[in-house]
Each structure stands twice: as C-alpha cells, then as structure tokens.
Task: inverse folding
C-alpha cells in the first residue's frame, strides 16, 4: 500500500486528502482556512468523524505543519516518510504541460514563470509545494495542472481574434480550468456505459462556485468555457464569465476604477452575487426564489441562459452528443438549476428527463434521463483529489 496526499492550496486555504493507493481509501481529509488571519480554522475528517480546531494560521508553513502533526496525532502515520507521494494541484500550466509532471527545478521554474497568468493561484501553489518539500524531502512531488486536460483544444478554438502577437509574445489564449474534474467525469461516464472512451462524446458541466462547461470528444477536450483565466465563460458565484470587453473600459471611465479595482469587481462582486445583490451561494438564491424575490429569479434565469448558450454551441461543435454530465456543488446538488437548464435544452436536444428523479438527487451518481432520451444525462460527483492521487501514484510506480 502506498500513501499519497492530494493537496489543493489557495491564497488563504489549504485542502488535503490522504489516500491509501491503489485501494483509494481516504485515511484523512481536511482543510486549513483563513490562513494569514488571526482566527484560522483547521478542520479534519477521519472515518466520517469531524474535528474543528480554531487556531491562528499565520502562513502556509504553519498550515503544513498543522497538517503533518495531525497525521501523527491521529495515528494515521508514525513517521513522515511513510508518505511516498504528494500531488499538488496547480491552476495554470500554460502551454507547457499537457499532463501531470514530476516536480524538478525546471518544472518549478516554468510554474514560477506562469505566475503572472494566475496571480491568485500559482504563487500559493508554489509556496505550498515548497513547504511540503521541506517536510517531505524524500516523497515524489507532482504538479497536476488544471489546464493540462484542455491542451488538446485546437488553435481555432483557443485563440482570441486580437493581434496575433498578444498570443505569440504574451501567451494570451484560452487555457481553461477544472481539467481534472472534466477528465474524471467524462471518463467515468464512459465506464458507466461500458464503452471505449474514444467512442463517447460528452458535455461536462462543472458547476460549483467557480464553474466551467467542456466539450469532450472521445476523451479529449475540444472546448471549454473558461478562457485565459477562470474569469471567463458561464456565470459563476462571484465571477462575471464572458463579457463584451468594452463594458470594462466604459465602467473604468465612468467610475474612475483602476485595472485592479475592476479586476476585483469582475472576480469577486459579479456573477450571482452581482445580480442578486445578496449572495453568491446557489442555496441562498434558491431560498429567495422560493419567496418570489425578483432579483433572485433573474439571477437563476441569467445563470441558466448563460449555461445553455454554451451547451448549445458545444452540441454543434461536437457533431454528435451522447451525454451531458452535471458535477460539482451546484451540478451535484441543485436540482432546480439542473431542471431549468435541462428544460431549456429539451426541445433542441431531444431530451427526455425524469424530473421527479432529478428533484430527489443530491451528490449521487445517477442517470436522470429516460432510456428514450436522444442524449443521456448523468449526475456524477467529481473527485479531483482522486485524479491527483492516481496521477501521482502512477508516476511513483514508473
Ligand atoms: P468550489 O469548489 O468552486 O468552491 P463547490 O463545488 O463547492 O465550489 O460549489 C459551491 C456551490 O454549490 C455553491 O453555490 C453552493 O450553494 C452550491 N451547493 C452546495 N450544496 C448545495 C445544495 N445542497 N443545494 C444547492 N446548491 C448547493
């Protein structure tokens, strides 16, 4: 048995899951939150039992130390070197990585050079890697890129119609994100169908706080809604998604906003929060919809409209569509959003949905379309941590 830890670091959080491979048993999972603030929170879960510790977590180094200490204290390991592999989620791999990479000084340097493409994420990913490398020097460390799965997208899809030098000199193009999730659920649906991956075309809807939709042809991503950064594409919790770029210049002038302020508003104050005016959380929106709140209803309508426009485009681009898969927080749990999206697609795509079944399902793998539906519709809980652990395990065994 091999112990592999999957790590997902953000600027103020550190999520982890320790797997026993290849059995996929989860020994412990947890999250350090509010890193950098005085009132940090460290949560762990072992065999369904949860513990919450309130403790200052001034930086990622302390978060990693807390995590490692919790492994010993809870008798998960006796010595640090029992952990043989650490898979680090890295948001931006640019055009350099089309698969998971073992971390070497060169790989680290490339990821460092991509920090300006993902200023909120890559620095935190690197910082966290370095802390883990210090405490686990003998383990195999890998970088699992959010962008890698989308490297199969063709130039006519990933290029923007702007001066070509913006791409050739400044790397401006569509990179996409959530690659591990789109890969996982599209593979899983082929397994469920018991068909070779090459024969299955799927549109995967990863609808979480961040959200993206992808077109997967025979196991390869041919389009995805997120763009140069995770700001593009569908409407999200606090992100605007696709936008006429002139809105940016117009509002900068109108409100005297700096580029940084505009970036903040489009990333943190837009999307569901921006339209509803009260929350970025789909559950809060639903509660207000139930009370007939007009802005909440409008929020849901825009959300659905944005999603079906993307799905419709991908349906055409794929040529033949076999499945639609819903995953992540909203995709797995929000039956209303799923129903609204599917009802809007029903006629065009020849969908036959069991809405009664759909309304009852939360976070469970299931087919919600009827057998006579032209396109099958599934809910498949995503498992990005497992993809990270698997990739790391495979590289360790090589
Ligand atoms: P991320 O990983 O991008 O932070 P998640 O995949 O956890 O996001 O998704 C968060 C979203 O999922 C939130 O909008 C939340 O409201 C929604 N969500 C989670 N559970 C439910 C539920 N039971 N019903 C409806 N929406 C839910």
Result:
């Amino acid at each position: 048995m091999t112990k592999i830890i999957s790590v997902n670091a953000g600027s103020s959080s550190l999520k982890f899951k320790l797997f026993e491979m290849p059995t996929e048993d989860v020994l412990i999972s947890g999250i350090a939150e509010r890193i950098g603030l005085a009132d940090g929170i460290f949560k762990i879960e072992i065999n369904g039992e949860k513990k919450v510790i309130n403790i200052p977590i001034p930086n990622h180094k302390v978060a990693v130390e807390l995590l490692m200490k919790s492994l010993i204290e809870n008798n998960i390991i006796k010595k640090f070197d029992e952990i043989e592999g650490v898979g680090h989620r890295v948001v931006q791999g640019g055009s350099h990585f089309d698969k998971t990479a073992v971390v070497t000084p060169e790989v680290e340097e490339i990821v460092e050079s991509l920090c300006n493409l993902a200023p909120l994420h890559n620095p935190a990913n690197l910082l966290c890697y370095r802390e883990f490398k210090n405490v686990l020097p003998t383990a195999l460390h890998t970088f699992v890129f959010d962008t890698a799965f989308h490297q199969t997208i063709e130039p006519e899809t990933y290029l923007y119609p702007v001066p070509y030098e913006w791409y050739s000199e400044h790397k401006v193009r569509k990179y996409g994100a959530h690659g591990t999730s789109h890969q996982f659920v599209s593979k899983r649906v082929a397994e469920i169908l018991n068909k070779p991956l090459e024969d299955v075309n799927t549109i995967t809807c990863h609808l979480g706080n961040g959200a993206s939709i992808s077109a997967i042809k025979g196991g390869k991503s041919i389009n995805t809604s997120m763009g140069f950064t995770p700001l593009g594409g569908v409407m999200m919790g606090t992100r605007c998604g696709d936008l006429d770029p002139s809105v940016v210049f117009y509002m900068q002038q109108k409100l005297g906003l700096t580029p940084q302020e505009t970036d903040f508003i489009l990333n943190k104050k837009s999307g569901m929060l921006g339209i509803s005016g009260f929350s970025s959380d789909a559950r809060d929106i639903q509660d207000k919809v139930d009370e007939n709140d007009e802005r909440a209803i409008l929020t849901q309508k825009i959300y659905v409209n944005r999603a079906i426009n993307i799905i419709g485009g991908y349906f055409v681009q794929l040529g033949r569509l076999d499945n639609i898969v819903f995953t992540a927080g909203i995709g797995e749990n929000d039956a209303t959003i799923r129903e609204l999206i599917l009802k809007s697609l029903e006629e065009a795509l020849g969908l036959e949905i069991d809405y009664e079944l759909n309304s009852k399902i939360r976070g469970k793998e299931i087919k919600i379309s009827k057998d006579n539906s032209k396109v099958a519709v599934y809910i498949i809980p995503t498992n990005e941590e497992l993809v990270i652990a698997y990739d790391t395990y495979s590289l360790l065994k090589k």
In short: The chain has two domains: 2-145, 193-379. The mean pLDDT is 96. The domain at 193-379 is CATH 3.30.420.40 (Nucleotidyltransferase; domain 5). Residues 208-210, 237, 281-283, 328-330, 333-334, 362 surround adenosine-5'-diphosphate (CB under 6 Å).
